[in-house]
Amino acid sequence: MARHPLDSLFAPRSIAVIGGSDRPGSVGKLVLENLKRGGFAGPLHVVNPAHAEVAGIRCVPNARELLSAPDLALIAVPAQSVPGVLVDCGVRGVRAAIVLSVGFAERRSEGAELQAELARIARRYRIRLLGPNCIGFTRPSEKTHALLGRGSVQPGRLALISQSGAVCAAILDWAHGQGIGFSLAVSVGNAADVTFGDVLDYLALDYDTSAILVYTEGVDRARRFMSGLRAAARIKPVVVLKAGREHEISRAAATHTASLLGSDPVFESALRRAGAVRATTLPQLFSAAELLSERRRSAGPRLAIVTNAGGVGVLAADRAAELGIVLPKLSESTLGKLEKVLPAHWTRANPVNLMGDADAERYAASVRAVVQDEHVDGALALVTPLALTEPLAVARALAAVSSETRKPVLASFLGGTQQREAREYLHESPVPELHGPEAAVEAFGYLASFEQSQRMLLEVPASLAQRTAPDAARARSVIEGALAAGRSTLSLLESKALLRAFNIPVTQSVLATSPDAACAAAMQLGFPVALKIASPDISHKSEVDGVRLELFTLTSVREAFAQLLEQARLRRPDARLLGVTVEPMHGKRFGRELLLGIATDPAFGPVITFGAGGTLVELIADSSVALPPLSLAMARDMIARTRVKRLLGEFRGTPPADMHALVDVLLALSELACELPEVEALDINPLVADASGVVAVDVRVQLRAAESARLPGQKEGRYAHTAIEPFPSDLVRTLTLRDGRRLELRPVRPEDAALEQEFVRKLSSESRYFRFHHGLAELSTAMLVRFTQIDYDCEMAFIALHETADGKLEEVATSRYVQEADGETCEFALVVSDTWQGHGLGSAMMRAIIEHARSRGLLRMRGDVLFENHRMLRLMQHMGFSVAAHEEDATLRVVWLKLNDPRPSRVPPPDA
């Protein structure tokens, strides 16, 4: 396999230390000592204009004069000197650099510009840059200890990515004392170039890494972070610890949605979306990673607890209740097995109390019985040092039972000296031993959380209902009119027009500027009516007592009109008053008041919120959040994660709410958030739901200029404001073949899984062999997810759809490309249904991905084609591809196409 672009950084064959020194206490001296102590076997160079020799290595005055270009440069010079040094590295052909220096963006003002200059130089010379303001990395298996730290690091199967150098050093020191080793530990620092996403992408394919730990204090390139996190979490467990959980977006939010939303719930939703697991403390970080790196996993959240002391069982049960872990009722069959081994007076409940005289045989029989129960996903054995219990014998018994089942068996041996031998024994067994009942329950929670997130990742969505396409042009005209008038808030009428454009049902509203106009509107709409103050400056009408409900007469309408304006002028004399809006009372007898909304997170962009509605939403605080775009499964999951979900079902004669209509509104809101970057915040409060459907009664929309919506570090584009690129509907078009038949050509969607599966099933065995290079009968669930739930930001897949005589759609061709790690190359694949070959469809599918890859700025497209696939090779030559023998496999041919002119040469102009 070709070297990964980050191999020059994390697996360098030669290193130059720029600023290497013999001066005691200097960074240059410490990093040189660490490289030698770590056993780095490749050539070491030192750049220092003030010395002829450092640490027995001859120095050169600058990087341009190095005899050969090293893979990696470690830069330890003052911040102001780093740009010149980086240019010298670029001229010499250095492929990667680590800036250990401080004094950049962490110092704000002048440091931020200096860091931006480093990023520009790195792009110009195509150098992968780690830092600045980092402590480097260590990779024990490669004997490369390029780290600012005095401790040693053992080799292991865990990888660590830390934003903070200090936290990275502390974690490594703590882990060394615990006997925990690492495949790679890296401090990304200010991440001017190499980000969390890049390192996650690298570790996803790293053979030596079985689980990944991440410590972060914030995310500034959300799109890249999400892409890398999702790619890694699909392959191996990723556990994230984030500092600053209590930080809020705004303490004076203009909408209920924004006031409910803090950065931590958004970050939690991002991890859920990517399939990663959240830890809240450092010990939990390692416990979760060690557990998840084992092959044995939990199938769900149902835990059976077995203990020889009732008190510790209650502690474990309490923690389980707090974490949402289920202690299931044991089956009659299991209770029967336990009856045979337990004392007559046992409680017949979970936790299972074995009593204080429990021996190893009783533990083994009881744990074996509960893990065989179909209602149990895992078992936890709690062992206290009572006189009749032999800890080592119990440990051996638990290990034996664990070897008989695929379900996880965890243990916690409470105490100190008497339990040491048992703990040491389990340390070498497949049974994880946790310190304390609460920690053990938390550990099981991580197993359950991981499995749930992986199921969400691998879920194949059902087909979307035939939803009416939104009138985005009409919505944009409403927004443009308000912004042109200098307003950042839409009126109620404009807000409802925006929702109607996206097919969200709303109550009818009429603006009245006088008592007579209000009475006329009431007669037109029909009594009873509601009156609400209309002002672009009043965020929450309740703050000015700005709502009157259940008005049945013209007299009450006139009185309400006068009262509303009087109260508004009294409480908000600065507000512009447009009059009042008149609305019919929604009159839903069994209606439930809900809140749906959009808020903007500074790191992740638009976020969808769902929860209980009404005027007390902040106090109730019952809501869930998710990043758009949403699928059907994600929308349902949002609803399921709230307490108000229980009110939506049937209870006490109240018919259940229309869940299909509610899900449809969430999907429409998701679409609105993606298509309208100008929407900074949106409240639908309340959205009234009952058995007949849903209707938005009140809505408020807050705007911003579209150019201010782009996320940090994100390129310009239609969806530059979103952390996850949504379905690119602008790429849908009609394709006409040479014989006149017309097909729909569009990017693949998650809901196309069934079409994709049927397409592969109908291929001939030869076509399947040419595409997959082996005799694949049908796609696995994981393959279906990989092919249909794509990251539109760094890959693209087009499908061609034909409408059959009975009106159904069938997939007849697909082409795709995936961007490689160098950010310049993409690998393609193409397959056309056997009955549709020979009509120009293959050429059209290839042109679609070539045009798209070219528009993304990629430089070249490549692919591997079986040498006997003559038709494909002829097509590639017809499309302008070059063909050559594969370097490693004689059965393959490599084909490639130049897409764009390469970036500027690594050789600088004369004035560089």
Number of separate helices = 28
Using DSSP, what is the number of strands?
36
Q: What form results from the Cα inertia axes?
A: globular
- CATH architecture designation of one domain: 3-Layer(aba) Sandwich
Biggest sheet details: 8 strands, mixed
Outline the low-pLDDT stretches. 247-262, 904-912
| Overall residue-averaged pLDDT value | 88
For the CA atoms, what is the radius of gyration? 32 Å
Structural class call reads: alpha/beta
CATH superfamily of one domain: Gcn5-related N-acetyltransferase (GNAT)
Q: Please state the oligomeric state of the protein chains shown.
A: single chain
CATH topology of one domain: Aminopeptidase
Helix content: 25-40%
Tell me the strand percentage band: 15-25%
CATH class of one domain: Alpha Beta
Distance between the termini: 36 Å
Which strands sit side by side, in order, in the main sheet? 29-30-31-32-33-34-36-35
